[in-house]
Design goal:
By secondary structure, the chain is of the alpha+beta class. The protein has four domains: 79 residues; 78 residues, Trypsin-like serine proteases (Thrombin, subunit H), CATH 2.40.10; 98 residues, Trypsin-like serine proteases (Thrombin, subunit H), CATH 2.40.10.10; 96 residues, Pdz3 Domain (Roll). The chain has seven helices and 20 strands. The strands form four sheets. It has a six-stranded antiparallel beta barrel with strand order 1-2-3-6-5-4. The protein has a six-stranded antiparallel β-barrel with strand order 7-8-9-12-11-10. Strands 14, 15, 16, 17, 18 and 19 form a six-stranded antiparallel beta sheet that branches. A hairpin with a 2-residue loop joins strand 16 and strand 17. The longest helix has 78 residues.
C-alpha cells in the first residue's frame, strides 16, 4: 500500500514539474519573440530615419549645386557687359612691368546701352569730352569719348562706336537690404586679372564719407557699403545682387581699414542712362546747390538739427538757386511736392527735368516755411 502511495506521489510530482517546464519554455519563447520583434521595429525605424536623412542630404546637395550653377550662369552673363577702360591705348598692363595701375589709369566699365554707352567712374574715364580706350570681352579695344561726367558723384558715361552690345540688367538700389549677398566684378590689378569676381554682403546703406584733398573738404553721400573686396582697378565695375542685377558702381575703398568698400547706387544715374539710350543725348539741368542730409550733421555742426528735408551747404554763384533767392542754411523739404530726405533724391529728380523747366521748392528758413519757384538752367 505504501509503495502504491509513493508511486502516485511521484507521478503527480512529475506531472507538476512537466507543467512548470512547459510554462517556462512558453514564457521564454514569448520573451524572445518580443525582443526580436522590438529589434526589427527599431531597425526599420532607424532605416526609415536614415532614408529621410539621406533624402534630405541629397536635396541639400542638389539645392547647393543648383544655386552654384545659377550664380555661375549669372556671373557669366554679367561678365559679357563688363569692359576695361584705360587712358593709355597700349596699356602694357602687366603687374610685373614698371607701369602700374595708377600710371596707366586702368579701370572698369559697364555696358548700359547696346549702341555703345558705357557707365564708369569719372576718375576712371576723365572729364567730359576727354578720350579713353575701352576693351570689350572679346579682347578688342575701341576709342571712347566721355559724353557725360559728374565729379560730385564720381560717375561718367563713355561712348564707343559699336552696336548690338550685351547690356547689363539694372536693379533698384532703393530696395536693397543690409546682409544681402552681392558680387563685385572688375579688373583689380590689370587686364591679366580682368573680370575678377569677389563676393560679400551689403554692410550698410546711405553712408556718407568725407574726403580732404588739397586742403578742401568734400563729401560723398548715399553710398552702399560692402565687404566685397574692391581694389583700385575695380573702380567703375558693377556691384551685382543675387539676381544678377546691377545695384551699384564700385568706386571707393577705405585704405585704412580692411573689408570696407563703397559703391554709388545705380538709381542715381538711371535717368541719365535712359536719356542717352532714348535720345542719344542728355541735357543736364541744374539747380545749383549742394545739400546734405541728416546723416552728415555730425560733420557740419553738432547743434544743427532738422527733422525733414536736406540742408543747403552751398549755393553756386549765377545759378538757378541764387537767382531764386535760396541761401546756405535753408532746408529744402520738397520739390514739386516730392519729399526730400537725401541729396540723391534731389539729384535724381533734377535729372528727369530739362533746362528751362520750372520747379516749385518748399523750403524752411529760420523755422519759417515758404514756397519758391525756380527755372532750371543748363549745367555748364
Amino acid at each position: 500500500m505504501n509503495d502504491y502511495i509513493k508511486k502516485d506521489k511521484k507521478k503527480k510530482l512529475k506531472r507538476y514539474l512537466t507543467k512548470i517546464v512547459i510554462f517556462l519554455l512558453v514564457f521564454l519563447i514569448l520573451i524572445l519573440s518580443y525582443i526580436l520583434y522590438d529589434k526589427t521595429q527599431i531597425t526599420e525605424s532607424n532605416l526609415a530615419k536614415q532614408n529621410v536623412t539621406v533624402e534630405r542630404t541629397m536635396q541639400t546637395v542638389e539645392e547647393v549645386q543648383e544655386k552654384n550653377k545659377t550664380v555661375t550662369e549669372m556671373i557669366a552673363e554679367v561678365n559679357d557687359s563688363v569692359v576695361g577702360i584705360s587712358k593709355v591705348k597700349n596699356s602694357g598692363s602687366s603687374i610685373f612691368s614698371d607701369e602700374n595701375v595708377t600710371s596707366l589709369g586702368l579701370g572698369t566699365g559697364l555696358i548700359v546701352g547696346e549702341n555703345g554707352y558705357i557707365l564708369t567712374n569719372a576718375h576712371v574715364s576723365g572729364e567730359k569730352y576727354s578720350k579713353c580706350y575701352v576693351t570689350l570681352v572679346d579682347g578688342k579695344t575701341y576709342d571712347g569719348s566721355v559724353v557725360w561726367s559728374n565729379t560730385d558723384i564720381d560717375m561718367a558715361i563713355v561712348k564707343i562706336n559699336q552696336k548690338n552690345l550685351q547690356t547689363a540688367t539694372l536693379g533698384d538700389s532703393d530696395d536693397i537690404k543690409v546682409g544681402e549677398t552681392v558680387y563685385a566684378i572688375g579688373n583689380p590689378i590689370g587686364y591679366e586679372f580682368q573680370r575678377t569676381v569677389t563676393s560679400g554682403i551689403i554692410s550698410a546703406v546711405n553712408r556718407t564719407i568725407k574726403f580732404e584733398e588739397e586742403g578742401e573738404e568734400s563729401y560723398m553721400e548715399d553710398l552702399i557699403q560692402t565687404d566685397a573686396t574692391i581694389n583700385p582697378g575695380n573702380s567703375g565695375g558693377p556691384l551685382v545682387n543675387a539676381e544678377g542685377q546691377v545695384i551699384g558702381i564700385n568706386g571707393v575703398k577705405i585704405t585704412s581699414a580692411e573689408g570696407i568698400s563703397f559703391a554709388i547706387p545705380i538709381n542715381s544715374v538711371k535717368a541719365v542712362i535712359n536719356s542717352f539710350n532714348t535720345n542719344g543725348k542728355f541735357e543736364e539741368a541744374s539747380l545749383g546747390v549742394f545739400a546734405f542730409d541728416k546723416n552728415v550733421l555730425g560733420y557740419l555742426n553738432e547743434n544743427l538739427q532738422f527733422s525733414e528735408g536736406i540742408y543747403i551747404a552751398r549755393v553756386n554763384t549765377k545759378s538757378t538757386a541764387e537767382e531764386a533767392g535760396l541761401k546756405p542754411g535753408d532746408i529744402i523739404i520738397s520739390i514739386d511736392g516730392q519729399k526730400l530726405e537725401r541729396m540723391c533724391d534731389l539729384r535724381c529728380y533734377i535729372y528727369t527735368k530739362k533746362p528751362g523747366d520750372v520747379v516749385t521748392l518748399k523750403i524752411q528758413r529760420n523755422n519759417r516755411k515758404m514756397e519758391i519757384e525756380a527755372t532750371l538752367k543748363r549745367k555748364s
